[in-house]
């Protein structure tokens, strides 16, 4: 029986066992590589069980046993985790399965397909569509489905494919690709983004390529190249591809005027990010930028801002707002693509030309209207320089009619985030091998930024010690997160922790610890202990998450982030309090506004295993047909993440003389994720919210739209069901003395 060997320390084990020791396997890339190597043990269709704490020569180690008869279709960490979960290897249990495999859980039915659509001259898109939200980007709250876009550009002399799809589409992707182009003519693959979740599609593509052809040349950034190499190791596919690390200024000429230029756009979350620009069609393949998780019938942004504005904004908030510096850098680099744009409209003929010209004229008119644009953007002329026919993102609709508006909004959002960071910033320091700790970091970041504090995201796998030190000097709080790999924290986290522990400024700051683990979770314990030993100041209880976070865990993260941001703001106020007057008399305006009254209600909402509630008095009827309400929700409110567009919730109206007990219960301080309705008698509504027994009436609602109104979100929601429970009692009214408080 052949042996499999630990990639770093060389420990060997029989072929049926993959053995990962921790002595040297502390680098994240070596862990990813370990998984790749684990295929030695899995070739014959086997699945994992895990045994905690086995060691060789006193080295804590993970033993993953391959048991015959299981089903193992993919090699990504995520899948391995889920296999492990389905085997119910719980927490601390030390079990090695030797018997027959457990029953396979029924697969979750997802409506997915891949379709081919013409985007521009010689350019097609393959659109993988799922009505369900796919597994990636778990912290993403809107549930409007997912799309995954790849693109094909057929030049006069060569053809390039831009990106491969998520594993959910692997089979359909290759099928659709085969129907759209002759695979023998595919010369280049441009990877603007790559992750372990895309390796299945890449392998399926490489296997489908005709044997006798030249290897396909993969153009990608250095981080993507490393990942591709490690994930394709031992697959016997080495002769089917070669990799070209893209450098600034590289051009890929496909003939017929299709010259592809590349712009490297690394962010902490996607260090491999790269834009591609075709100067002939003026298409910008923008990867995660300008993306949205939404699956509509239309392939283009028909309906414009009204149809997709919320999705684009929410995607930005979740995915890019935590790294405004890098987002800004990427936007600035868009300038360089415009210099290659050709005035191609003149030569074109036919209806499409008219349409394109209309679009061009329209976008020019929009720009000339001089709508409010961030000053820095205007002075740098970004909007003027960015003239593309369309933006082709990796997720969501192809942006054709809203290009100018979307780019401008991106500039404004980024500018706002950068401004927020100038006042107070929390450093979010983490590493993640398989994305689970990233998801926690992202959710905490959302909680921080919705409370009005900036975020500086530092993925320690790619940031330098100098960057970390500089961020610690600047920040007003920090959090540190780590996965547990082989019983330890990975080396980059150990180094970062070393820097934090000797930083005198960091000791005075509010901080927090978080991390994902599989069964023992030593990394988080170690980090917490070492910070406690040095008297660091914890703003929220340490977050420990087993494998992938659920919605409830993400809710804990978001609320913890908000708590930390509020601690930061309190400290800032305290510091400035000597200069500030202790007591401010309500101004005339505040007193006047304070006479506006509202009915006292309780809003309750649930999503998956997350639930929340809030006392609300800024509630008004907004329409007769359909019956509709507006409700103002403060941006840093815990329930805010559960009332996004499309979400269901319940409004409970409280009665005079019956409201104080309910109000008192909901105004208590709550820990992150704590159930807020536990002390009240409730029953579940049919839409998932909660009906409070003491309410005089209740309404089941759906959020239709959200309007940003200063420090609140104004929800417009329609009422689908409701009941009057107590017709005698009048509605409780919330009277106030000032409009500066509730
Ligand atoms: C090679 C390897 C070793 C691991 N070792 C441990 C361990 O010793 N203890 C533990 O609790 N979890 C262990 N895990 C599970 C990871 O901590 C878990 O998958 C976690 O979700 C990874 O977080 P990330 O996605 O942020 O990288 C291990 C996973 C891998 C792949």
TrEMBL record:
Pfam families: Flavin_Reduct, Flavodoxin_1, ODP. PROSITE patterns: FLAVODOXIN, FLAVODOXIN_LIKE. It comes from the Eukaryota. The keyword Transport applies. Coiled coil: none annotated. Its cofactor is Fe cation. In the C-terminal section; belongs to the flavodoxin reductase family. Mediates electron transfer from NADH to oxygen, reducing it to water. This modular protein has 3 redox cofactors, in other organisms the same activity requires 2 or 3 proteins. The keyword Transport applies. Residues 426-565 form the Flavodoxin-like domain. This is Flavodoxin-like domain-containing protein. SUPFAM superfamilies: Flavoproteins, FMN-binding split barrel, Metallo-hydrolase/oxidoreductase. Keywords: Electron transport, Transport.
């Amino acid at each position: 029986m052949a042996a499999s060997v630990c990639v770093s320390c060389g420990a060997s084990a029989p072929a049926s066992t993959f053995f990962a020791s921790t002595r040297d396997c502390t680098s994240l890339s070596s862990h990813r590589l370990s998984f790749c190597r684990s295929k030695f043990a899995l070739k014959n269709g086997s699945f994992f069980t895990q045994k905690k704490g086995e060691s060789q020569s006193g080295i804590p180690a993970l033993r993953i046993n391959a048991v015959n008869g299981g089903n193992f279709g993919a090699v990504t960490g995520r899948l391995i985790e889920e296999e492990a979960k389905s085997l119910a290897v719980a927490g601390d249990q030390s079990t090695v399965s030797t018997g027959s495999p457990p029953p396979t859980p029924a697969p979750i039915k997802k409506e997915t397909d891949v379709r081919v659509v013409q985007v521009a001259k010689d350019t097609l898109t393959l659109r993988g569509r799922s009505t369900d939200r796919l597994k990636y980007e778990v912290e993403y709250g809107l549930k409007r489905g997912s799309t995954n876009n790849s693109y094909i550009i057929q030049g006069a002399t060569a053809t390039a494919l831009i990106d491969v799809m998520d594993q959910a589409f692997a089979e359909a992707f290759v099928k659709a690709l085969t129907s759209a182009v002759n695979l023998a003519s595919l010369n280049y693959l441009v990877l603007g983004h790559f992750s372990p979740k895309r390796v299945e599609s890449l392998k399926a593509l490489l296997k489908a390529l005709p044997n006798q052809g030249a290897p396909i040349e993969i153009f990608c950034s250095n981080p993507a190249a490393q990942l591709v190499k490690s994930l394709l190791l031992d697959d016997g596919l080495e002769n089917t591809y070669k990799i070209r690390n893209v450098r600034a200024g590289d051009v890929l000429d496909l003939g017929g005027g299709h010259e592809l230029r590349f712009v490297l756009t690394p962010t902490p979350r996607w260090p491999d990010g790269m834009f591609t620009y075709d100067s002939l069609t003026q298409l910008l393949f923008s990867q995660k930028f300008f993306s949205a998780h939404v699956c509509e019938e239309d392939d283009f942004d028909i309906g414009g801002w009204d149809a997709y504005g919320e999705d684009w904004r929410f995607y930005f908030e979740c995915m890019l707002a935590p790294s405004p510096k890098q987002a800004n850098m990427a936007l600035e680099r868009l300038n360089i693509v415009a210099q290659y744009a050709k005035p191609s409209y003149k030569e074109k003929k036919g209806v499409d030309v008219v349409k394109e010209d209309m679009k061009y004229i329209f976008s020019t008119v929009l720009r000339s209207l001089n709508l409010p644009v961030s000053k820095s953007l205007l002075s740098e002329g970004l909007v003027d320089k960015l003239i593309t026919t369309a933006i082709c993102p990796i997720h969501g609709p192809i942006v054709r009619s809203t290009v100018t508006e979307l780019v401008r909004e991106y500039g404004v959002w980024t500018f706002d985030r950068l401004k927020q960071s100038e006042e107070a910033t929390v450093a979010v320091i983490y590493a993640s091998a398989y994305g689970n700790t990233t998801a926690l970091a992202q959710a905490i970041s959302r909680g921080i930024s919705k409370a009005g504090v900036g975020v500086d995201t530092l993925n320690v796998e790619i940031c330098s010690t100098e960057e970390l030190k500089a961020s610690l000097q600047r920040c007003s709080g920090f959090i540190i997160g780590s996965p547990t790999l082989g019983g330890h924290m990975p080396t980059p986290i150990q180094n970062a922790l070393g820097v934090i522990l000797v930083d005198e400024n960091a000791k005075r700051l509010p901080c927090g610890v978080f991390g994902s683990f599989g069964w023992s979770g030593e990394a988080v314990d170690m980090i917490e202990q070492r910070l406690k030993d040095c008297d660091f100041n914890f703003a929220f209880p340490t977050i420990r998450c087993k494998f992938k976070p659920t919605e409830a865990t993400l809710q804990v993260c978001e609320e913890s982030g908000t708590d930390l941001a509020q601690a930061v703001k309190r400290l800032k106020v305290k510091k400035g309090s000597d200069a500030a007057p202790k007591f401010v008399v309500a101004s005339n305006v505040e007193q006047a506004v304070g006479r506006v009254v509202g009915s006292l209600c309780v809003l309750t909402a649930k999503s998956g295993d997350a639930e929340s509630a809030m006392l609300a008095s800024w509630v008004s009827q907004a329409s007769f047909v359909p019956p509709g309400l507006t409700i103002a929700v403060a941006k840093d409110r815990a329930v805010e993440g559960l009332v996004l567009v499309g979400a269901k919730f319940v409004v409970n109206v409280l009665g005079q003389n019956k409201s104080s007990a309910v109000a008192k219960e909901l105004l208590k301080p709550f820990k992150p994720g704590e159930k807020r309705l536990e002390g009240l008698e409730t029953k579940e509504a049919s839409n998932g919210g909660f009906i409070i027994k003491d309410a005089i009436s209740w309404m089941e609602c759906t959020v239709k739209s959200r309007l940003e109104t200063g420090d609140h979100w104004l929800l417009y929601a329609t009422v689908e069901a409701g009941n009057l429970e107590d017709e005698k009692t009048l509605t409780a009214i919330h009277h106030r003395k000032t409009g500066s408080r509730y």
